[in-house]
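Subject: two folds for Thursday's group meeting

Dear M.,

Sorry for the delay on this. The cluster queue was jammed most of the week, so I only got both jobs back this morning. I'm pasting them in the order they finished. Each block is the input sequence followed by the predicted structure tokens. Could you check whether the formatting survives your parser before we put anything on slides? The first protein is the one we discussed after the seminar.
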Amino acid sequence: QVDLVESGGGTVQAGASLKLSCATTGRSPVLYAMTWFRQASGKEREFVAAVSVSSFTHYADSVKGRFTISREKAKNSAYLQMTSLKAEDTGTYYCVLGWMTNENGHWGQGTQVTVYS
């Protein structure tokens, strides 16, 4: 079983930057696409960004141009560089294995991002 651990969240002022990290705790011989989701309090979880095994990327319109997803080449690890943060980016950020979907159904604890204006 591969579990994911997210880190790097924090409380920042609007306009600031943060870099989130996602690491796997188990070993897998298979490389997966990886996706970041986020969930604001009282709202549904939403897609943020995805990166394929070959590092092709896709973003939600709301973060395009501000967020950059990247990954390690030979590991199921990913990052989310977030710049020009807005209050509406506030939420708990989760990473999962899969292309825009959670393939193994496991959700980690997430990492909290709070942006105040």
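Second protein, same layout:
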Amino acid sequence: VQLQASGGGLVQAGGSLRLSCAASGSIFSGNLMGWYRQAPGKQREWVATITSGGSANYADSVKGRFTISRDNAKNTVYLQMNSLKPEDAAVYYCNAPRFLLGKPYDYWGQGTQVTVSS
């Protein structure tokens, strides 16, 4: 398994969760790592990305509430989610955009379910 996501669960609105994504070293040693999410009936949407140097970017919908981080020694990227809202409920996927055989290729984790009760 190249990317293994974990940490999802059921939380009340206003609560917090921390997602983790463990990557194989060959994948993690690249640059960007990110999180996406997909709610039922909706397209997968970008949530946040982080460079190997720790620079992060966020979707407007999560800015100020979510924090992406990485531990390069553990080949792991995290998503700390605070002040969760019902609209944050989705399957969350970690992502590693890379090149494979010279072409852009996205590695995806298996997804972890986040459910937010109102």
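Two things I noticed about the second structure. DSSP finds one helix and eleven strands in the chain. The chain has a mean pLDDT of 94.

Cheers,
T.
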